[in-house]
Design goal:
Elements lengths: L1 H19 L17 H27 L4 H16 L1
Helix pairs in contact: 1-2, 2-3
């Protein structure tokens, strides 16, 4: 999921950055993937995997403690963010 998300959203991030730096309209959509998609793929994909692993561990611990499933999921997602930072 993370790799697909990065590949789909990367061109939008590139265009948004180019608009913020006021690049000419002619260069706005030129070589969207040649500007460095590899670093986000290499860093964000393992980070997302780590998040989901932590979330699953927290969620199973909360459910084992008798916490309601929706509350366990909410708390697990909240706590899963911290190791990712």
């Amino acid at each position: 999921v993370s790799i697909t998300k990065q590949i789909v959203l990367y061109p939008f991030d590139t265009v948004r950055t180019r608009l913020q730096v006021s690049t000419s309209r002619r260069e706005l959509f030129r070589s969207l993937y040649n500007t460095g998609i590899l670093p986000p793929l290499v860093t964000r994909t393992p980070a997302s995997a780590f998040f989901f692993a932590c979330k699953d561990v927290f969620e199973s611990q909360f459910r084992a403690a008798g916490v309601a499933p929706s509350t366990a999921t909410t708390l697990a997602v909240f706590l899963g963010q911290f190791p990712k930072w």
